Structure to design on (1065 residues):
């Protein structure tokens, strides 16, 4: 049984902050089939298209029949813990600092055996449920946890290394003016975030929900105009060392594509607010977060981008906006690579049209801001990297996988 | 399990057992250690490097060099070359391949060498780059290396067959006693069962004295025709039988047996001896649990009886079951791929009566085994050889 | 004027006999800007981006790139800014006559009224009352509306409510009257616009813009330190950037005031 983690005390200013280290990260190319599964919270194994046998570790031929038809498919998660060990003297720095560390060997009901990280409540000979998680190196690893929920389950030390649970973490929500921003604040608060810094640009402009936001315990309204480099830098100078999770809720949505727009000022605004805003945030907050990836219970853990699913495929009705989102998506991959040495995850939440004023004329289904907020918190708790929120986002994802050309033609129809 | 008729190793012998004494850390390269072993082979046989026309090498730390690059490094002009990356099974495999090459006339004198250096970071480098499955699916799980993998195997074995830490300790303590008679062993101080039991845990149930100490060193021998050995006046070791098996029993959920169990009958049949006829046994002892498993799989007791077998025997040089007479890797050190050769080279000395302080009295026939390559969740490679001295 | 007089003037500035009052807010990213409904084009906010600061990007020098809309910070409105002035000659900041950049100012103090009512509107009777005390507003003078609005915190300064900004300004009649009957060179305020926050509901909407620019006159807004000016006798120097076909620009506004 797991002791609940305690709220971290204030840091000793005389103590050096321990630098983050990565667990071993080299992987074969094929093994990244598991990385994809872990990023989306799926449990996938290779299954032979010819003989149906599941296999693991990642292979290039079926060990049962030598077929090369080995697609990664969603697999049954249940298995039995055959044997376990606790590592006291690991060979690399990352695990040496985290020893003792528990691993085990699980026989899956569907056949393969997995060497796996263990939740502390797993018992030898008992059933376990498996997931693939992204570890601090950003690579997929197997993780076993008990079949039934146990007390304080998510406080497990090894599990917390795989996730970005908001509990006791300090979060910067970049835009408290938006409904999405306010819902994210509420959801994070419920998830146990200790401090919520909420950015408000142009604080001389009142906004709806302001009073309720100010009344929330733990919320600190901070001046933040992400389009303004200095504003972002100034805030980072104040609180950059205390931001464990950053959720970029800034949104700048305008309808329209290219030919029916006059000039570039709207496009420029989109780029300023979305893309350059992201750049400003990353440059101001990224370095400290990367350096604080191993800073105790409330280490820096995650950076969340809210992206339109049309970052993946341009929707001409919101064509320039889609392009600004695509730019942010591309940049998120850069940020992911650069934050990886700190073990800080970059979560991309791809959403379909939100149920907000800028998508007023778009027919349903639309994503309620509250649903988006709760999906983000869930992704942080589960340690996911890519989530698709709402029916439209899931629809676009699946259609893109099936035929990107069809998506292009249909969105442009 | 079904054996076809195997060609015996007639008129092929092993000679010139060579050990380049180990050091814990070395600033020299693997090539340096292999070179020292080659020189000792040449000196020991009274030949010149030109006389070596077959070369078989194993090393984890030779970097980009395989056997072919090393021929130029060492000025060897050979007509047969092999590089054997089978870890702890490399010596048995080298012996098998070299013997057949000599028997077929493809080579006249084959130098079989394993050498590794041990820089301060080379062991970790080896762990990190061991194999694809290891890199994908084992090492990222706590970076425990072989300790973690064998811990999972040991724990399951203990639970399944009732082995206790004390049983493993008995093996380790006996080997230490043997090592104290071997001037080349890195471990110089006695080990008591109490010390064994009190050692710090590394990866439960593996504790400190269950683990080998990585070090630098080299081991080697020559394989040649019986007539060549006679003309060089070299004491010769006969190869009575060998077996080799890879990726056996893949369906066992956790490894409880090695490939020996598949081929052990053939081993004794080919050798024309019974387990009781052996004067000593050199098992591959990367962990005591693996030695215990081999007592079962190599026919000294049945599966599951390993713990009892251990309790009933004395494994010291003068004991009821002389085992790992040099001290084994647990007490001599594990010089990378040299660890595979340690038992084979010691067995050669024993049957030749050249073992000096570790000599088992009147040893004529002995067994040496190999085991290696924890690729994913189990050791994949296994092998064994029964060797005999001139008088056998 | 002979050169001697001009030298005397320069000497008076140097000696402090003529005081120079800076009527300008610092141009900064966080200064409030005009708010339009979001579907309209927006003024680019002030952005100051460092190019280098004695660092790898420029080891010995410090400089910035600036972006801002023409109507940000303390700024000048040229006639071309409004549709009523679009066809006038010399109606943009690059063509306006340089002599118009220096002119005397009448300062009408409505700070008490504005403190009482954020929607306070300047009317003809109020100006006539001022003229009773200080004399008729001469031609080609600036009229500066002092409200002390520039002393407020920025939230109160913008004073945005659900129905828009609530800040003082002129009514329609007084603007037409100042342009047509007093021939003012321009009208200046402390608030974000020359018009009142609710000026869009007047007839015509935004009368300051409508009449000033339709008459070829100028606007100044976001002024400060008006409380340091005498009702009459100050001279305003307001030279906007020479932006090609520019409708206005941030600028440094100085007032020259005789020492008491």
């Amino acid at each position: 049984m797991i002791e609940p983690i305690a709220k971290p005390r204030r840091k000793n200013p005389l103590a050096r902050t321990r630098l983050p280290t990565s667990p071993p990260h080299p992987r074969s190319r094929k093994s990244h089939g598991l990385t994809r599964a872990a990023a989306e919270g799926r449990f996938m194994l290779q299954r032979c298209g010819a003989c149906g046998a599941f296999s693991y570790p990642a292979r290039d031929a079926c060990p049962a029949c030598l077929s090369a038809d080995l697609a990664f498919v969603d697999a049954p998660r249940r298995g039995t813990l055959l044997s376990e060990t606790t590592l006291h003297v690991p060979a690399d720095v990352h695990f040496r600092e985290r020893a003792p560390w528990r691993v085990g060997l699980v026989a899956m009901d569907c056949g393969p055996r997995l060497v796996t990280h263990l939740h502390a409540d797993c018992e030898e000979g008992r059933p376990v449920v498996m997931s693939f998680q992204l570890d601090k190196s950003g690579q997929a690893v197997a993780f076993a946890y008990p079949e039934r929920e146990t007390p304080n389950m998510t406080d497990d030390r090894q599990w917390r290394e795989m996730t970005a649970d908001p509990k006791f973490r300090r979060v910067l929500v970049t835009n408290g003016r938006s409904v999405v921003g306010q819902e994210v604040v509420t959801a994070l608060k419920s998830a146990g975030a200790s401090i919520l810094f909420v950015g408000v640009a142009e604080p001389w402009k009142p906004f709806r929900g302001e009073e309720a936001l100010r009344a929330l315990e733990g919320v600190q309204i901070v001046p933040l105009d992400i389009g303004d480099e200095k504003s972002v830098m100034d805030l980072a100078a104040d609180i950059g060392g205390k931001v464990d999770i950053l959720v970029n809720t800034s949104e700048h949505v305008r309808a329209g594509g290219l030919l029916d727009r006059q000039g570039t000022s709207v496009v420029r605004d989109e780029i300023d607010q979305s893309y350059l805003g992201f750049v400003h945030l990353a440059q101001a907050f990224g370095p400290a977060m990367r350096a604080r990836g191993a800073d105790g219970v409330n280490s820096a853990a995650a950076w969340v981008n809210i992206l339109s699913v049309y970052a993946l495929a341009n929707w001409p009705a919101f064509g320039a906006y889609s392009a600004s989102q695509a730019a942010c998506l591309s940049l998120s991959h850069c940020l992911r690579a650069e934050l990886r040495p700190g073990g800080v995850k970059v979560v991309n939440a791809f959403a379909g049209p939100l149920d907000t004023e800028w998508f007023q004329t778009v027919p349903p289904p639309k994503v309620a801001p509250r649903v988006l907020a709760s999906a983000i918190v869930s992704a942080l708790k589960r340690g996911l990297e890519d989530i698709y929120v709402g029916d439209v986002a899931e629809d676009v994802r699946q259609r893109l996988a099936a035929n990107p050309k069809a998506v292009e033609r249909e969105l442009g129809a | 399990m079904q054996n076809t008729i195997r060609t015996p190793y007639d008129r092929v012998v092993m000679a010139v057992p060579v050990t380049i004494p180990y050091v814990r850390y070395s600033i020299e390269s693997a090539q340096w250690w292999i070179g020292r072993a080659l020189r000792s082979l040449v000196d020991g046989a009274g030949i010149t490097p030109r006389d070596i026309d077959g070369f078989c090498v194993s090393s984890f730390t030779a970097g980009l060099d395989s056997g072919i690059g090393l021929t130029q490094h060492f000025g060897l002009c050979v007509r047969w070359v092999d590089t054997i990356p089978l870890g702890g099974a490399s010596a048995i495999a080298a012996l098998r391949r070299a013997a057949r090459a000599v028997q077929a006339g493809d080579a006249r004198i084959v130098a079989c060498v394993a050498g590794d250096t041990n820089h301060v970071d080379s062991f970790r480098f080896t762990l990190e780059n061991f194999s694809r499955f290891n890199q994908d699916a084992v090492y990222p799980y706590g970076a425990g290396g072989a300790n973690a993998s064998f811990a999972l195997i040991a724990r399951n074995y203990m639970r399944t067959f009732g082995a206790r830490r004390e049983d493993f300790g008995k093996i380790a303590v006996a080997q230490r006693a043997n090592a104290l008679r071997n001037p080349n062993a890195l471990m110089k101080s006695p080990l008591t069962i109490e010390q064994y039991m009190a050692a710090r845990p590394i990866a439960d149930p593996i504790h400190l004295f269950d683990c080998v100490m990585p070090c630098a060193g080299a081991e080697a021998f020559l394989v040649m025709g019986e007539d060549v050995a006679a003309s060089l006046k070299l004491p010769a070791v006969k190869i009575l039988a060998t077996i080799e098996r890879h990726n056996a029993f893949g369906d066992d959920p956790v490894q409880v047996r090695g490939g020996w169990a598949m081929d052990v009958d053939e081993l004794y049949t080919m050798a024309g001896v019974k387990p009781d006829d052996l004067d000593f046994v050199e098992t591959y002892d990367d962990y005591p649990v693996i030695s215990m498993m081999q007592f079962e799989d190599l026919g000294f007791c049945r599966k599951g009886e390993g713990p009892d077998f251990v309790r009933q025997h004395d494994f010291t040089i003068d004991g009821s079951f002389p085992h790992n007479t040099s001290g084994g890797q647990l007490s001599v050190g594990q010089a990378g791929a040299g660890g595979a050769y340690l038992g084979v080279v010691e067995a050669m000395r024993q049957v030749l009566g050249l073992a000096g302080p570790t000599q088992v009295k009147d040893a004529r026939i002995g067994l040496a085994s190999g085991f290696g390559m924890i690729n994913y969740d189990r050791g994949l490679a296994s092998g064994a050889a029964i060797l005999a001295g001139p008088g056998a | 004027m002979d050169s001697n007089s001009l030298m005397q003037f320069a000497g008076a500035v140097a000696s402090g006999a003529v005081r120079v009052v800076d009527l300008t807010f610092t141009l900064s990213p966080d200064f409030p800007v005009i708010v339009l409904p979001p579907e309209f084009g927006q003024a680019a906010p002030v952005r100051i981006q460092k190019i280098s600061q004695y660092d790898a990007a420029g080891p010995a020098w410090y400089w910035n790139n600036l972006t801002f809309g023409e109507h940000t910070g303390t700024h000048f409105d040229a006639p071309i800014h409004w549709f009523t002035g679009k066809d006038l000659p010399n109606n943009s900041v690059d063509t306006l006559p340089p002599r118009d950049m220096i002119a005397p100012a009448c300062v009408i103090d409505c700070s008490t009224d504005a403190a009482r009512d954020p929607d306070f509107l300047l009317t003809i009777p109020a100006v006539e009352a001022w003229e009773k005390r200080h004399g008729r507003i001469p031609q080609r003078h600036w009229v500066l509306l002092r409200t002390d609005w520039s002393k407020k915190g920025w939230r109160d300064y913008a004073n945005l409510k659900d129905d828009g900004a609530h800040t003082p300004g002129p009514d329609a009649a007084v603007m037409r009257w100042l342009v047509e009957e007093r021939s003012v060179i321009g009208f200046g305020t402390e608030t974000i616009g020359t018009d009142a926050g609710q000026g869009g509901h007047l007839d015509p909407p935004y009368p300051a813009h409508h009449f000033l620019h339709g008459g070829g006159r100028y606007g100044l807004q976001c002024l400060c330190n008006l409380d340091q000016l005498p009702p009459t006798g100050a001279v305003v120097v307001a030279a906007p950037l020479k932006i090609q076909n520019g409708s206005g620009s941030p600028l440094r506004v100085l007032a020259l005031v005789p020492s008491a």
